[in-house]
Amino acid sequence: MKTALDSTAPEVDGEPLSFRRRTVIIDGPDPVDKYVGGQLRLRRAQIGMTQSDLGSKLGLSFQAVQKYETGENRISASRLYQLSRVLDVPLAYFFEGLDGASQVEDEAVNSDLSRKEAAMVLGTYYRISDPRLRSACLLIMGRMADRGDGESA
To answer: What's the CATH number for 19-99+127-153?
Structure first.
């Protein structure tokens, strides 16, 4: 039996839109939380900040930052605002590239390793204080990439 509330519910592909309650223990982290956490990790690495540094700026332990980055802990709106200020990015940065739920699931599963590696490379790069060494590092990485997929380094 249809009620008055049913007719006002948003629909996707002719079906009423609804969300099932998720729990981290049973379902694992929500794909959106993982995506936002990945954006957090990426930006932190881009500016060469450690989890401990970020945690101390927010009054958190590095473990709490780690849980945000993996999506294990959800980031509240007020904390997201604080993060955007500390990391000098607009709030929308954390959601850039987030189009749909299925895309989020795919990206969360497929890009964890590449995001982690990219964050490690960026973090290491920004720890190099000598600009000449940084340039040399970029040159070496560029040449390695140009060698092609089939050749060994």
So the answer is: 1.10.260.40
